[in-house]
Specification:
By secondary structure, the protein is mainly α. The protein folds into 2 domains: 1-29 and 83-128; 34-81. It is built from 6 helices and no strands. α1 packs across α4. The longest helix has 26 residues, at 3-28. 12% of the residues are buried.
């Protein structure tokens, strides 16, 4: 295998990794449908669970404990803001070449949730 071929393979792996990481982060942090839960409403639910737990039968108690764990995790996550700038920078560097190599259209990126401004910085245009 030539050095050029090895470099091309490494570049392809870098592009794929950059695109995958950015898309996974977008997917993990996209807004959920429906009314957003507030920290206040989650705390009220936690209080309700704590009040119900002592008198609940074992199966109901199991469900309440799981609900409490889920709510606490959601409360912890609500306080953290996700910074996509590093992932976005790598995506912008890799996306145009990746799109050309894989035949990915502007519309496909948009349908997946990539913002038009990010695609513009990456050099991916609406027309092919």
């Amino acid at each position: 295998m030539s050095d050029e071929h090895k470099a091309a393979l490494a570049e392809g792996r870098y592009q794929g990794r950059s695109v995958r990481r950015y898309l996974e982060a977008l997917d993990a942090h996209k807004p959920k449908r429906g009314r957003k839960r507030t920290t206040e409403s989650m705390r009220k639910q936690l209080n309700r669970i704590d009040a119900e737990l002592p008198s609940a039968d074992p199966l109901k108690r199991l469900q309440l404990i799981q609900e409490r764990l889920d709510l606490k995790a959601e409360l912890d996550a609500a306080g953290t803001k996700v910074d996509l700038t590093g992932l976005e920078k790598d995506f912008v560097e890799a996306a145009a070449a990746y799109s050309r190599r894989k035949g990915i259209s502007y519309a496909a990126w948009r349908e997946l949730g990539v913002e038009p401004a990010v695609l513009k910085r990456a050099g991916i245009k609406r027309t092919s």
